Amino acid sequence: MALSFLSKSNNLLAWFGFKPDTVCVVDCQISRDLRDHLVSRGVSVVNSAEEGFTYAITRAGASSNIAAEIKNYYGKIDADGAVFVLADNMNDRQLAMLKQSTGLPCHVFIPYPDMTDVSAIFREGFMPSEEALRIMIPTRSASRLRSPRLIVFYKTEPRESVRMVKFNPQRRKAYRVNTFIIDDAVSGRTRVLKMAEDQEAASHVNNIVKNYEALRQAYKSVELAPCQSMGDGIVEMEYIDGVSMLAWINPAKDPINQMKDDLDNVLSWVMDYDNRGGGPVYNLGSDLHNFRVVGDRIICINYEWVTRDPIARGFVKFRALWSFYTDNRSVLSTRISSGAFLKQFGFTGVEILRYRIKEMLLKLKINGV
Description:
This protein is an alpha+beta fold and 369 residues long.
């Protein structure tokens, strides 16, 4: 299974520089899946070479002296090359010792929730909190951080470094989008790229720009993170480093009435549409954590899904509150039922049932299950 998470169609290898005609030395213990994937991308895979190769892939544990092996490869790779090391179950102390013993510059990447069913990969230092991870990537996996780590020893520090890549493996192919957060070492700029996993999802990604144009006319007070097309199936968005609108709400401790008032205040912004122009348009991605406070501005960072259904306003509000409740179910369910929670915001029992069915149908459309 070594490095199998890199053999997925996730575009991640492109950011590490694997291009057609690249020569890569692959350790004999690396999986056939990864070898086959590299070959399918036009990479020339060899078992050994004294010179003339750009990359080497090996495993910590495959050699009795992995540090010496890394330095040996490092001394032979091209100037723009790198050595990739899969560190199986390496703890923080062992990782620190390996870095110290090699003395070479490197980046460390962590797959989440585990290697075989990866939903995201984070660069070391950018792993979100447990709470943020639970909201970002709902999972039943208990393997958190027992996953392997990918250590990349660079010969030349890359201009662009992947901070995070998030996949959507549960979706239908037509909606699979990979989201990259990328740091530019020269300009100091951080940007977000949304890329279709394959051509089948390109039209869905292209629609994000159309959604941006429609929604920025529809919102009264909320701004949108600017975006632009970078080609078929690729959209670049401005990275917004703000504070979540939910940062001041504590679902575990706030009195229910206070929490309701605070959520009403948040919704007064999120649901503040002005649809007098080209007809109604609503943001189905109105999960409340998608709205960031930056100074005195409210900026929405997700508008992948929109609807022009003239009666969708109630459903959009329901989705915002339903996602808040389900994200915090572990603490809220002991305090108030989901039905009672939603009824506080004016939903009747019939509406709750109707919207839950609509939610299931939307998930069925996206995920197919």
